[in-house]
Design a protein that fits this description.
Blueprint: H1 2-30, H2 34-47, H3 51-74, H4 78-88, H5 91-110, H6 114-127, H7 134-147, H8 151-164, H9 169-191, H10 198-211, H11 216-236, H12 240-250, H13 255-281, H14 285-293, H15 303-334, H16 338-351
Helix pairs in contact: 1-2, 1-3, 2-3, 3-4, 3-5, 4-5, 5-6, 6-7, 7-8, 7-9, 8-9, 9-10, 10-11, 11-12, 11-13, 12-13, 13-14, 13-15, 14-15, 15-16
């Protein structure tokens, strides 16, 4: 019995101690002794068995770090303020933490240590995306990337500005600088692509048109030429429908080239007709008709295709009739009705003249 009595006393003592850690922390906080208060809150968080009190200790500790950070901030001790606000890990601390990173980035930039500057910029953009400083940071980072000839990274940052802060002054301020590099980036895209990358390159070029101030005609011509190149590749492979679609896509990007490509589209219709004729020659009527019909993708009422389709339908009908007559002629020949058989062979030949007849 005495054993349980002592266990109870020890448990009560432990609970009393953990209560004392949190209470001591609160008392020290009230006295503005935040460093010592944090030590007590740490002990409470580590040893307290009461979950609610642990949470209170964590909140109180965060506040103490914030208040210490604020003192350092007021004294413009940016490295210390940064560490304390980071440890506070609270929304209110973040409202000042971005300013600490900003001041440190300004210092490193003045010392020409751009790698450190970029690291601080990255911290603001990545960890404090709601900061009002973000548009300015993107602006500054773009200028560094441009000075380092890292044009792709500069464009990637401008994309963020364009999409999220389109009307912001920092976006408008850097826009002319981005416009200056558009011809260079355009040529780089074209130079570094292969045939498999033509479609992807069009998407990139369209983005450049969106960003352009003075070079949209230049980029649009490159887009039109790319669609034309895709069309020519499909023409060579006799993929006429795809070729037509690519030629059609090129029209909106350059009027002069569109007029030239109209002539090339005539080549596509000729291709459909020629391919259809080849099918018809081999008595592949369905395939022939489908090939002729593809001309309507280019011109809805294309008369030569209509005439070819009508002829193919007639030839298919003739072929079916010729096959029936030929079978009858074979039967007459087997029965020694040569005169009748010859007449029917001639009728079949008139409808469909093939080697077997």
């Amino acid at each position: 019995m005495r054993k349980y009595f002592f266990i109870g006393i020890i448990s009560a003592f432990i609970i009393s101690c953990t209560n004392n850690y949190y209470a001591a922390g609160k008392k020290l906080s009230a006295e503005k002794n935040h460093v010592s208060a944090i030590e007590q809150y740490d002990l409470s968080i580590k040893k307290d068995l009461n979950g609610a009190r642990k949470t209170k200790a964590e909140i109180a500790r965060s506040e103490s770090y914030y208040l210490l950070g604020k003192k350092a901030f007021e004294k413009e001790n940016w490295p210390l303020a940064t560490r304390l606000f980071f440890l506070s890990n609270s929304p209110v601390a973040d409202t000042l933490l971005d300013n600490c990173y900003y001041q440190l980035s300004e210092k490193s930039f003045a010392e020409q240590d751009t790698s450190v500057t970029l690291d601080f910029y990255n911290k603001i953009i990545t960890y404090l995306p709601d900061s009002e400083l973000v548009p300015e940071i993107y602006n500054k980072r773009i200028r560094i990337y441009l000075s380092q000839n890292k044009l792709d990274l500069a464009l990637e940052d401008f994309k963020q500005l364009w999409e999220k802060y389109h009307n912001d002054e920092y976006t408008k301020n850097i826009h002319p600088k981005i416009d200056e590099i558009i011809p260079i980036v355009t040529e780089k895209i074209i130079k570094n692509r292969d045939n498999e990358g033509l479609l992807d390159s069009i998407d990139k070029l369209k983005t450049l048109v969106e960003y352009s101030i003075n070079h949209s005609d230049f980029v649009n011509l490159k887009i039109a030429l790319t669609y034309t190149k895709l069309a020519e590749i499909e023409l060579e492979a006799q993929n006429f429908t795809k070729a037509y679609q690519y030629f059609l896509s090129s029209f909106e990007f350059n009027q002069e080239l569109a007029e030239k490509n109209q002539a090339r589209i005539a080549t596509i219709t000729d291709g459909f007709i020629t391919k259809g004729d080849d099918f018809l020659k081999n008595l592949l009527f369905t395939e022939a008709i489908e090939s002729y019909k593809k001309c309507f993708l280019i011109e809805k009422e294309y008369q030569p295709a209509k005439e070819k389709i009508a002829y193919a339908i007639k030839r298919e009908k003739d072929a079916k009739e010729a096959k029936i007559i030929f079978a009858e002629a074979l039967n007459d020949e087997r029965n020694n009705n040569y005169k009748t058989a010859l007449k029917k062979y001639l009728e079949s030949k008139k409808l469909l003249n093939n080697a077997e007849v």
